[in-house]
Structures are given as structure tokens and as C-alpha cells.
Amino acid sequence: MTGSPAVLRRASAWFQGRNAFYVALLLAPPLLWLGTVYLGSLFALLMQSFYSIDEYTARIVPEFTLRTYAQLFSQPAHVDIVVRTLLMAVAVTIASAVVAFPVANYMARHAGPKMKAFFYVGVMLPMWTSYLVKVYAWRLILAKEGIASWFVGAAGLKPVLESTLELPVVGGPSLASSYLGMFVVFVYMWLPFMILPLAAALERVPRSLEQASADLGARPGQTFRHVVLPLALPGLAAGSIFTFSLTLGDFIIPSIVGAPGFFIGMMVYQQQGTAGNLPLAAAFSVVPIVLIALYLALARRLGAFDAL
């Protein structure tokens, strides 16, 4: 018992001032979880993509091969799925940026405290609702006899809607069964993820720069193009990370709303579930990972991570 205080004093002296040890002790559990569960599952997924499936027994052959990737990029149907998903992700990202910029600009630079709080609550309020409830609600809204069609008819734009739905790429029997309707739902779902980082970036634009631009004779449009917009690009890039990656990997919205046609997420779900072709599902899963990695590298060059 007499040695216990001495041991405690020595232990206390050893721990004192060792901040790195405390930091490592705090970070060890989450890093262990991240390394074993998240990165481990990604590594297992990557390994599965280099396997193949026996065409006769439908069993996975655990031998290193590029046959699955050759199947992915050689079949036109699979290439169409990748291109279709990529084009939708790019279109949703651009549309979200166009819609979000005026809203974020008003929130950050013109709204008073009460109005700003109202806008922030309004932007985040849809995020508190169930994802599936929102998707099915939009399917009812975009149905042939839904609210959207009624509003279009009341505005006298029914011929315009019918002509749009007859287009071969974006059209369909109704808005709920067209790529246009799917595009609308995607933009609605991911718009808050574009508005919030963009508003944060615009709030950091100094007013003094706009005043200096005006003092030098620049018109408001020139000030916006040459001062505000370049400083807001990190926020745009940060928001686009969310809209692009979320659209790229989503499979629920294309399954419920939109024209017939597979997307990457749907293909992964079908191949690992119904078809039982896990290597092909893993290969499809690697495609968005690579695309998002390339996109993140581009966004980093634009300073997107400074605005997250």
C-alpha cells in the first residue's frame, strides 16, 4: 500500500504534458472503426470486382481477372448505364447551382436576421422528412392527373408539356414516367446541399471588395462576375460535391420516378440481389467511386474543402 502513491505519482508525471498520447487515445476507436469497417468493406468490394462468375454454375471464381471490367466496358448496355447516370448527375449539379445561387445570395447578403433564419429553416425543413415519403409524394405530384399537370393545364401550357413529353430523350407517358420528372425530383432532393455551402461562402465575401469595385467604376453586373462569383466558387464546388455524388449513387429515385432505364445504383442493387452477380455489381460500384474521386480532385483545386 505504501508504494501505491509513488506509482500514481510516477504515472501522473508520465501522463503530464503528453498531449499526443491523449489525442491518439481519443482518435483510436473511430479510426479503428473507419479502418476496419469502412475501408475494409471498400477493399473487399474492390477485390470482388476482380473476380468473375462462372456462366454454367453461377458461382464466383475467386481468381484475379479483368474479365468483369471487360464485360462492363465492352457491352453497350452497360456503357449506356454509366453515361446515363453521369449525364444526369452533371445536369442535376448544374441546375442545382443555377437555382441555389440567387437563394443563397439573398440569404447571405440581403436578408435580415429574422428573414435569414426563416430561409435557413425553410431550406433545411425538407431534410427532416422521410426520404421515401418525399419520393412517393413527388410521384403523385408528377402523375398524369397529378397536381403538376393540373397547374400546367390551368396556366394554359398543356400543349408545351405534351410536346416536351414527346421528346425522345427526356419525355415519357407522364412527368412521373420521364427523365424530366426524375431530374426535377433529383434537383428538389439535393438542392439544400447546394444552398447551404454556397450561402456560407457568400457570407465570407467582404463588402469592402464590392465597394472598391464600385469606386473603380464597375457596374453591378461586372462586380458580380469579377468579384462575387470567383469568391463564391469554393461554395459552388463544395455544394456540387454533394449533388454530384448523391445523384451518381442513388437508386431509389430512378426506381420510383422516371422512364425505364437502369442507373448505376439500380444495376448494383439488381446484380448483387436478383442476379447474384456480385463481381459485376462490385465493378459497377467502383465506377462512381472513381468518378467521385476525380471530381473531388477537381473540386479541391477550386478550394471546395475550404467552404465545407
Low-confidence stretches: none
Q: What is the CA-atom radius of gyration, in angstroms? A: 26 Å
H/E element sequence: HHEEHHHHHHHHHHHH
**Number of extended strands:** 2
> What is the CA–CA distance across the termini?
55 Å
Question: Could you explain the architecture of this structure?
Answer:
The chain has helices at residues 4-15, 19-49, 67-74, 76-109, 113-124, 131-141, 147-154, 158-165, 179-203, 207-215, 220-249, 252-256, 264-272, 278-301; strands at residues 52-53, 60-61. The chain is built from 14 helices and 2 strands; from the N terminus they run H-H-E-E-H-H-H-H-H-H-H-H-H-H-H-H. The mean pLDDT is 83. It is 73% helix and 1% strand. It has a two-stranded antiparallel sheet with strand order 1-2. By secondary structure, it is mainly alpha-helical. It folds into 2 domains: 4-47, no CATH class; 77-306, Orthogonal Bundle (MetI-like fold), CATH 1.10.3720.
Which helices and strands appear, and what pairs or packs with what?
Layout: H1 4-15, H2 19-49, E1 52-53, E2 60-61, H3 67-74, H4 76-109, H5 113-124, H6 131-141, H7 147-154, H8 158-165, H9 179-203, H10 207-215, H11 220-249, H12 252-256, H13 264-272, H14 278-301
